[in-house]
Amino acid sequence: MPLKTSVKKLIIILVSLAIIIVASYLVYYIFFRQAAPSDTSGSEISLEPKKIQKIFPLSKEPVLGATIDANGTKVKYYTKANGNMMSAAFNGSDLTILSSANLSGLIKALWSPDKQKVVSYFGEGEQIKKYLHDYASGQSTLLNEKIEQAVWSPDSKKIAVLTYDENSSSNIVNVANADGSEMKAIFQTRIKDILLEWPAIDKISVRTKPSGLAEGAIISLNPDSGEFITPLNGLSGLLSKWSPLGDIVLYSTTSASGKNPSLSTADKFGQNRSALGIYSIADKCVFSQDNRSIFCAVPERISENAIWPDDYYKGMIATNDSFYKINLENSQKALLYSANGEKSYDAGELLLSLEEDYLVFTNRRDGLLYSLKIK
After folding, report:
1. In what order do the strands lie in the sheet with 285-287?
2. For residues 266 and 229, is the Cβ–Cβ distance under 8 A?
3. How many angstroms separate the CA atoms of 218 and 233, rounded?
4. What is the side-by-side order of every strand in the sheet holding 239-242?
5. Measured over all CA atoms, what is the biggest interatomic distance in the chain, rounded to whole angstroms?
6. Alpha carbon separation from 182 to 71, 185, 186, 199 (Å, rounded)
7. d(CA 325, CA 323)
8. Structure confidence by residue, pLDDT tens digits, 287-332
9. Residue 131 and residue 142 in contact, taking contact as beta carbons nearer than 8 Å
10. 256, 236 in Cβ contact below 8 A?
11. How far apart are CA 169 and CA 167, in angstroms?
12. Within 13 A of 89's CA, how many CA atoms are on the CB side?
């Protein structure tokens, strides 16, 4: 009997120890193991904790000319197929037809900042006509056929237009009233394939067409005097985007062979340059209203065989983007949406809502309009 009693006590002790061990493991697993921080050593991008984000479709068919409306509460756009004007709330609700006018052949639409006027491009190839339409008055004006580009001033009161003079083989930058009247030339150059922007009242930006196989430049013009400076020059694959105040330029460059597009910033004089450590292009970014941050679509993988940005704009490659917010003051980078989802987004033409709670973009993969809720 003493032997049986000893065995029984031993079994009880062993069972008790087993229970204690199992209980200790469960306590560790539940309260300690899950709370352990993730190993992010070696990561170039620091992450901030974010709530689960969601992407909303804002259109049912391919779009062009998307913009935030004057009230800042909706997105409006033209349908690519027939030029109908639509609007939708930022979460995809309240899809509304604003105009069912059939604008056949519409290929581009540039809204004035006050959202009352638009420059519309119709046609294809060299047979492109440009109209200036005022929605307040209902009047449309056919622009001179020599006008190759038109951009709005920040106050919507003037336009800058690019014309080509065959006699001097020069591109000429002109400034006119919003209705196209009282046009005057302010700058002339023999540089071919230039693009116009008007980021600030006192600054018109002229930049070369980007190519990873050519060095690009940005010329900053005074719209009144025509005086100019060249903030950036001699940079391969140069693409740029100015801040809302016109005092910071975000730009992307590549190697001399068009590889590894990366983002940097500089002041309006091209000084105080800073690499952001982000591999993307400037056209995939948008500034916050206070100039302190940018929101960017960042490809999960950059094609090593492609020439950037040439092959990208030719439609030869597509990206699978994640979305980040980058603080320009402290270089902190926060992940907003990961590319590891069920659907791939190749984001372009980014817009930021006035409350900075939605990021709107066109998905180059399907031409549809989407929004990402970011707070």
Report:
1. 285-287, 293-299, 321-327, 333-337
2. no
3. 6
4. 239-242, 248-253, 262-267, 274-275
5. 121
6. 31, 10, 13, 21
7. 7
8. 999 999 999 999 999 988 999 999 999 999 999 999 999 999 988 9
9. yes
10. yes
11. 6
12. 4
Q: Do 75 and 68 meet the contact criterion of CB atoms below 8 Å apart? A: yes
Query: CA torsion, points 240, 241, 243, 249, in degrees to nearest 10?
Result: 0
Residues 6+ away with beta carbon under 8 Å from 98 = 76, 85, 86, 87
On whether the CB atoms of residues 298 and 280 are closer than 8 A, the answer is yes
With tokens 């008790």, the residue in question is: 16
Q: How far is CA 249 from the centre of its chain?
A: 14
Is this structure's pTM higher than 0.85? no
- Per-residue burial over 346-358, b = 16 or more CB atoms within 10 Å of its CB, e = otherwise: bbbbbbbbeeeeb
Amino acid at position 334, single letter: A
Assign 77 to helix, strand or coil: strand
| Gyration radius of the chain's alpha carbons | 27
Categorize the per-residue pLDDT at 246 as very low, low, confident or very high, splitting at 50, 70 and 90.
very high
| Block residue for tokens 């060299």 | 126
Residues whose CB is less than 8 angstroms from the CB of residue 264 and which lie 6 or more positions away in sequence, other chains included: 250, 251, 252, 253, 273, 274, 275, 276
Which H or E element spans position 252?
Answer: strand 248-253
Structure tokens at 15: 């069972």
